[in-house]
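subagent[fold] <- orchestrator: predict structure for attached chain, return tokens only, no commentary.
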Amino acid sequence: MSHYFTTDNTPHEFSEIKFSFNDHVYRFKTDRGVFSKNQIDYGTEVLIRTVFSEFKGSGDLIDMGAGYGPIGTVLGKELGLRPVMVEVNEDAIQLSIENTRREKVNADVLDRESYEDMPFNVSLYVTNPPFRAGKDTVLDMLNDGFKRLDLKGEFYMVVQKKQGMASYKKHLKSLFGNVEIASKDRGYYILKSTK
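subagent[fold] -> orchestrator:
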């Protein structure tokens, strides 16, 4: 599963997908080896819809595990936030850069190492975690969310029950002191915690 780690040397297979949201059609360039390259996956869509309807703050957002950039691009544009998009796959990083520029979203797209070296906090942290990379990787993202959020900042993640929803919910409660199911749709749960 190369898209959960860094990159590979197989030939590119670029394509373009469309995503309609809030009366705007987003066009995303994708490639082989990146997560959900043929369409925006439904979990990501539920996450975007939920955060769009719930989050009322301002400032910056972190999109952890950004892939080719749909979450950070859409929420950045729709909520007027500056996205910091973090990714380990080098090909996905380049796609995120192209896709944010295409939509005229002023984003910082960083690899994980560069991100770790930059001390900053944000008001919103969102992630559709790479569950197949293992529980330790996902828990690291949750811990990072708590660390990177300002006071009263909001954390959102999407998870299915079979991916360990109950244990991640418990972990968020232990970190933040609170957790709720912000929405649920077709088996996808959006967990929300506030710092």
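orchestrator: received. Logging for downstream: The chain has six helices and nine strands. The radius of gyration is 15 Å.
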